[in-house]
Amino acid sequence: MNKINRIVFLGFCFFSIQVSGQSKIAIYLNDKKPVKERIEDALSRMTLEEKVAMCHAQSKFSSAGVPRLGIPEVWMSDGPHGIRAEVFWDEWNNAGWTNDSCIAYPALTCLAATWNTDMAALYGKSIGEEARYRNKNVLLGPGVNIYRTPLNGRNFEYMGEDPFLSSTMVVPYIQEVQKNGVAACVKHFALNNQEVDRDHINVNVSDRALYEIYLPAFKAAVQKGGAWAIMGSYNQYKGEHCCHNQYLLNDILKRDWKFDGVVISDWGGVHDTRQAITNGLDMEFGSWTNGLSWGRSNAYDNYYLAAPFLKLLKSGDVSEELLNDKVRRILLLIFRTTMNKERPFGSFGTEEHALAGRKIAQEGIVLLQNKGNLLPLNTSTIKKIAVIGENATKMMTIGGGSSSLKVKYEVSPLDGIKKRFGSSAEIIYAPGYTSEKNNKENLLQKAVETAKKADVVLVFGGLNKKENQDSEGADRKGLSLSYGQDELINAISKVNKNVAVIILSGNAVAMPWVNKVSSIVEGWYCGTEAGNAIASVLAGDVNPSGKLPFTFPVRLEDSAAHALGDYPGNGKDETYNEGIFVGYRWVDKQNIKPLFSFGHGLSYTTFKYGKVSADKKQLAADEDITFTLSIKNTGSRAGEETVQLYISDKKSSLPRPVKELKGFKKIQLNANEEKNVSFTISKEALSFYDDIKHSWIAEPGAFEALIGASSTDIRSKLSFELR
Ligand code: GLC
Asked: pTM for the whole thing?
């Protein structure tokens, strides 16, 4: 063979070794291959034991990978407001790491109160970066259970009473979290609207309420947000625990909504092996724990989807295809996260994340009342500020259950006030009340004495993250504030006419003193930057633009779940007798005057709404209709206003709410600036769920578009017709 041929031959040999070498890389490891091929290749290489091991926890927050094949474990972390501290392998206690102090973002009620999807995107990006940096591939949040009763201990983790608002706000959060290669695990699916008897209460609800009120945010999370994981809830529906529920998981979530992700149980939410195998569950976590504090140690091999599952597989009693479907979904989760080489690297505890949290808080804080324009505080005239209340100093990032966080820092309201106003005014503080022990009289007197001396009094009250306040595992006992706060506020209002009450809470509270104080602010739980965010609003550095994501009833009986008396159920069953009439839908139906309405929130400026017009008087079933109106800032400073579109069906074959939120736009206007706002809707926004036909229908006939600054502050209306 001559020299040329030898070179060609050797080149060919080298090339063929390369090619065959390439084909030697297993398909599942080759991210150039279609993900379905990678999944099938991985599946084909796994043993029965390896597949079963993937379907259940191996520790508090992790499940097995396949060490032999280099397929990584799955690591999860709470929660919706920040990345939980590391706990021990098999204990709830913090493991004492020194690198896991996170940034706490505002509670999701505050995010919802921004009515700004840009804030939801910022939130998801920021928390997703923190989860990614901590090497979590599943973030156990956000929560989108509907606010049905103001007593639910976990409402602070959710996005309020309206399905359209929750559905709109949850989507960007999920999308941005998942851009980090971290799965959002949307929870708790479904009908987990209270903490009393949460682990077994069997919820009876009409299909109309299920489809119109309780499912939409989850459906949006899956179909618009593209959520890679869903968490089943503790309670039962149709007599089956929601963590293994044929109807919710197999029929609705996986068949109808075409969900391709994993269903993860809530911690301790699994109660039956066969149901866990056949009714849509993919990953079992936290069995034999209360999901909060206790658990049998190292029970993992005995999990329902562990040894019992393996035994049924080996005996041929259950088909391996049921196992393979679970494992395909888990492998897809892994290929989307830890084995996705394109994913970014995240960041943790950064100033950028803290400022993101502050921005969200500033946009979510709601100015409920401002008589005499006490706010913003006039720092040129105010020389002494009294800050009263335990909530001015109490850490709120700790407690509340699984969303509790170990934070890098938390600015308290008092610290925020001192930092913002301390150079121009004297700040004097008195706790006024305590959630710890009961020396109420002494504290009250000292607070009154302190208030007497001040030009203005800022009372920081509300709820906290203790049991029977805003906390997982238990509900509140009533609508009223605890620890003698009402008495304190009444006493202070007698000695100082310049009183602003800032309520820190995730729920509505009763305010018998509402006419005795000048200003009231809903300050939520705002996380790491809480004190700075609240101080910036009180100072007017930020013009408040938040709007309530749920109704504040005057009395508990004004809330449907209590008016009809079925909350909290009889310990076994609970029937949602109000059906679709939840929140403002109930308020409208019963002509109740709420304390503060859904969608209510004031500004330091004023806005004038023009008359709404439409591009057509009638629309066909396949057409859109666009409503337009002008909004003018008639005040002296820039501000943001959320214009709300409600739709009213004037004649329907089934009962419908007086009106329903079907659009909102938050716009920024400088002083005297005027802009047009438009809403384009189609017949989807006119539809209701017909539980006899089992489908959404829009009935031809007369409708009305109502433009509101809140659900009860309607500024303009327009009739139109669906042909
Ligand atoms: C809890 C909660 C759930 C949380 C999980 C893990 O009980 O219900 O929201 O993600 O257990 O802590």
From this structure: 0.96
